[in-house]
């Protein structure tokens, strides 16, 4: 069983914003080989992070999308993973934190190739409070925090190069803070998997060779 963990092997690149106190970044990567055969499954990971002078600024809404080619892969929503909360502050009543919206991990209405990762504050209007709790990076109170928004699972169905494109500007996407401002959500990373037709096994090659030899013998007798 795959466990949902924040990846420690991928370096998150942080971009500082001049116009706001904090900067935000969403990144994507393939958790596994860069090649697959038809029928194989693959995981695509999406991380969200903040950094700046005041990285714990209140977030009201954050939504990004992953776009994919439906002729090459199918999306397995039931096998995809997402945390039950993020940017959490423990203790006391009225704590605010981000929760996955009902549309999180679903295909956007009237589309078959846009997966939504939608998060909202649990007490709108508001904004999460002054630290990242369980999703603090490296376990330290540094000026950066984040969480894994989703691990999306797909199955390869056709040969070709399957690209998984992260988007912050598709219909429905937004990043809004508690003061109503909408800062830039920088995108980083790439996701692509080369899908190939499975190579014939040794057993199937042997059977093919035997059938070919039998065919040659039948032709020789007839002649």
Brief write-up:
The chain is mainly beta. It contains one helix and 13 strands; from the N terminus they run βββββββββββββα. It has a single domain, classed as Sandwich (Immunoglobulin-like).
The CATH architecture can be named as Sandwich
Radius of gyration: 23 Å
First-residue to last-residue Cα separation: 60 Å
Percent in strands: 35-45%
Q: Helix- and strand-based class?
A: mainly beta
CATH topology: Immunoglobulin-like
Find the count of extended strands (DSSP E, 2+ residues).
13
**In CATH, what is the class?**
Mainly Beta
Largest sheet: 5 strands, mixed
Low-pLDDT windows of residues:
1-21, 124-131, 133-139
Net shape:
elongated
**What are the secondary-structure elements, in order, as H or E?**
EEEEEEEEEEEEEH
Mean pLDDT: 76
| Percent helix | under 10%
Summed up, the helix count is 1
The total tally of domains equals 1
Q: Order of strands in the sheet with the most strands?
A: 5-8-3-1-12
